[in-house]
Amino acid sequence: MGMMKSAEPLLDEKAIIAAAEKALSDIAEVRREVSKVIFGQERVVENTLLAILSGGHALLVGVPGLAKTKLVATLGSVLGLEASRIQFTPDLMPSDILGTEVMDQDETGRRSFRFVKGPVFAQLLMADEINRASPRTQSALLQSMQEYHVTIAGQHYDLPSPFHVLATQNPLEQEGTYPLPEAQLDRFLLQVDVGYPELSAERQILLETTGVTEAKPSSVIDAARLIDIQKLIRQMPVSETVVDAILAFVRSARPGHGNAGTDKNVAWGPGPRAGQALMLCARARALYEGRLAPSLDDVMALAEPVLEHRMALTFAARAEGMTVRDVILDLVKQARG
């Protein structure tokens, strides 16, 4: 998966800058529209949008009732994507997600099979409480996230383009949850932690959502435009300094690579997908923040959402009450020097 060699010819610098400036204003417009409906939670909105702009999937983690579902529905409207939603439950079967073969009979009595598509055939799929379903059902979804197609009875069906999954997960302390396997967590470009809103945002939520009318977001771009922006992001040049910083940072989070804190506390570290995620999302974040080139700051701001679900602590570190987040923040501090 070499990300540096783009299949498309690189645009010349002037054309890239012009295209990036157009993307900048589109993204700013998307941000404005989302903020009419989702109050506060700027980091959550930003990281979720960065995952989509970078062409990936995001895992939203937080207790129920923090507007995660509303955020996904809002993004569907604003980005002009066909959205669908699956509520994961312990009895959900893979076919409830992917679709099923049904038998039809015509007037002459001839029988044939017809495939009825499941809700996974959407451009933006909300997988609600993904860790409540059995591992078999989780992996049906996660496989389609990886491969962008579904195979039913030996037949191949391509998923729509673009295809993004925003999954929500309850914190693991909650009853009746199956943790997602590590290899499957790695398929999410970013993990987005959703906390409680700040006081001023919560006041706004109270006032705006308990009246007779609620603001409705309108569409700012469409699927085709989103795909253009995603292609552009892959073409944005990244300076040598930023590439080196990404590599150094990801490697510092792996035991056995010369970082004493990591060696002591980390059981296993992030694989190459973490570097790829930083490389893509740093470019998307630059545009999101109104800049034309990614900086070291972008890399450090993304360290947590990119690495948090891609590493695990040793038993000893967990026993001391450390969290993966503590370790990442420590590495960020060291990297900033």
From TrEMBL:
Signal peptide extent: none
Gene3D superfamilies: Magnesium chelatase subunit I, C-Terminal domain, P-loop containing nucleotide triphosphate hydrolases
Top-level taxonomic group: Bacteria
AAA+ ATPase domain boundaries: 54-198
Record keywords, A-Z: ATP-binding, Nucleotide-binding
GO molecular function term, any single one: ATP binding
SMART domains for the chain: AAA (SM00382)
Lipid biosynthesis in keyword set: no
InterPro entries named among the record's database cross-references: AAA+_ATPase, ATPase_AAA-3, CbbQ/NirQ/NorQ/GpvN, ChlI/MoxR_AAA_lid, P-loop_NTPase
Family designation: Belongs to the MoxR family.
PANTHER family for this protein: MAGNESIUM-CHELATASE SUBUNIT CHLD, MOXR FAMILY PROTEIN
Name used for this protein in its record: MoxR family ATPase
Organism: Ciceribacter ferrooxidans
